[in-house]
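Example record

One chain of 300 residues, shown exactly as stored in the release files.
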Amino acid sequence: MRRAPSRCDPLALLCPRFLWTVHVQTAVVDDFNHDEHCKDSLCMGTPPRGYLSNALKKICQRYQDKPRFVTLYDPQKHIPGYSAYTFKKSAGEKGVDFPWMFEPQVSLASDKGGNNMEPFPQHARIHMNFQDTQAVLEDYVDVVQYERGQLNPGQHQADPLDKAATYTLTNVVPQVKEFGAGPWATHEQIIRKRLNNYCYGTVYIIAGVTTSGNMICRDNLDRVAIPEYMWTAYCCTNYDHNAPYSERYKVPMFGAYGLNDRINNNMMGIPVKSLEKYLRGRMNVEKNFQIFYNDCVSDT
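Predicted structure tokens for this chain:
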């Protein structure tokens, strides 16, 4: 499909509030329960409810034949709407020397894409085979104000293979460097320490974004949506009831959001119900939008 030239800022490589439509109706899986292990990344096996778009793809992110986490991916904006994963207690080490990967399941180039994420081919021209439906490495070249921000961060995982699996561009959004290395990184560390110390059993985390229309452009075409806000929420039903009050009121679930910008970008911690209300006004979701099934309260 031939696209008209996009109105891009030649310095910032941004397309202001201008989105192209790519009609992609098929989903990677119809339901995250398609693989019995995919739902293990979701609270009570249930994803957030209320997303309205039919074009969003449900990806069971597999690495070396094992499901690692799940992502709701937008093949039009070339970013994830959210990634959902289980937190693993760790010392917060980041993964190193892992190659960036793409997701064959999302590609339109083949009707039989593989089930595992794969490292990007060395030859950039090959990337053209799947760049219509997902971001590629070239989209992040020469865009100095942004870094590749992981929604499921490696420092929230303990196993090296789980860390490696976070290095797929279907888990990545353009993150302003001052925000990603500042308030967002600090928040991830705060959450890691809190969950390490006061949550027992399985902890479910969902990290997502809102967008306002700004895009990273390449070759005068809009390529990757830039998040306006980034948000996160966790659910741990089994927790230390003797934790200090300053921490105890933030369990079993708590949320936060921050502006993806250089200034005024502090993370705002709020109850999940307040976060849901905030997001309803900024995302294409129904009025019953809910992050955690049954508000993180187990039926058993």
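Notes: Residues 48 and 291 are 4 Å apart (CA to CA).
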